[in-house]
Amino acid sequence: MKILIFSALAQNTGSAVRAGFIAESLKKAGVEVDFVKPFPQSLPFKIDFLITLPWYFLRMIFSSARIVFAVKSYPNVGLPLFLKKLLGTKIIIDTDDLSFSYSEGIWSLLSKFSQELFLPLVDLHTYHHPNLLTYLTCDLKIPQQKTYQLKQGVDLEIFSKKPSIASLGRLKKKLGLEEKKVLIFVGHFDVACDLEGIFRAMPQVFQKEPQARLLLIGDGERKKEFQKLAKKLGISEKIIWTGLVPKEKVVDFVSLSDICLVYYQDRKANYFRTSLKLREYLALGKKVVCNDIGELKDFRKYTYQTSSRLSDFAKMTIKVLSGFNDKREIKGRTFVRRNYSWEKIGRDLAKKLRTYFARK
To answer: Parallel, antiparallel, or unpaired for β 288-290 and 259-262?
Structure first.
């Protein structure tokens, strides 16, 4: 069983990260995998789709893979998938959120149409959130037997080993964080990023904890927008932007933090998401302050959770920075390592594919 795996979106997106983890976990499960490296970064007006379309056509045409697996079904993978389907190849598409719900008007309609157009040709649909199953089976009328829950996992080879105290000390010195209390946010600064809520809670936090600093790991097309907001809120001097960091190095930055932050706005899209970063934070046993929207509520036993009111979010952040700790993150570490290991998820997926396509 050979599988060709694509991400419709660029390397600096969560979808591409998920595609990479799927590929690696299947390889570890003994599956022959050819992972097509995504485009380096998203471009305005989806120009990266036009660039990748001919390349993806060529990769699919000259591939001997029996199965093609794509994360998201945008036309840059959807059109080549259609051709491979005609040639007898089995098709899997992973729906990892409701992309069209991040925009409004004509852009939302175009996004929705461009993805749903190719979904009827799919042999197996994967998803991570239960609400996505409802979308697939109720909204799109896809038979439930053609779906499979592919959880959002954590690479425990990376996110179970903390760096040494000495190396953390050197990193803190390099970042100018000695004697500081460190808050951290890791993410892609794109349309799905809810960094604004965190920013608006920070003036209250910094007023109470003047030695606190917010460390931001990542990059994206909205970075300048967020930098302007930080300046407007008067918190720019309290923020450190690192830019993109290799995934194997992210653990170093997360490990030096006192608190990891996750915040979801109360909007439709966030009821169809699962948080990779939340799982990674907890896998390291880190304290996580988050609100209670969507899937985040499922982690209430393991996080310092608040309502979505920014004042409540700020108060909880201050409380935990001040020393409040009932060790719930230790239970969270056990929970995540037991239930969300990509290695186990990959083994289960490989077993599913072998049995599912053996009947086809």
So the answer is: parallel
- Rounded to the nearest 5 degrees, what angle is found at the Cα of 320, between the Cα atoms of 315 and 326? 125
Per-residue pLDDT at 359? 65
Instruction: Go through the domains of the chain in sequence order and give each one's CATH number.
Output: 2-153+341-358 (3.40.50.2000), 165-339 (3.40.50.2000)
203 vs 244: CA distance, rounded Å: 25
**pTM, two decimal places:** 0.94
Instruction: State the pairing for strand pair 90-95/259-262.
Output: unpaired
* All residues at 6 or more sequence positions from 115 whose CB lies less than 8 Å from its CB, including other chains: 72, 73, 74, 78, 99, 100
Averaged pLDDT of the chain: 95
Q: Please give the Cα distance from 240 to 247 (Å, whole number).
A: 18
* Helices 195-208, 310-321: crossing angle, 10 deg rounding: 50
Going by C-alpha positions, the residue among 151, 277, 270 that lies closest to residue 217 is 277
Both tokens of 311, joined, read 């004042």
Rg (CA), the chain: 21
DSSP state of 291: -
Q: Which residues are paired to 186 by β-bridges?
A: 217
The predicted model gives 286-312 an average pLDDT of 97
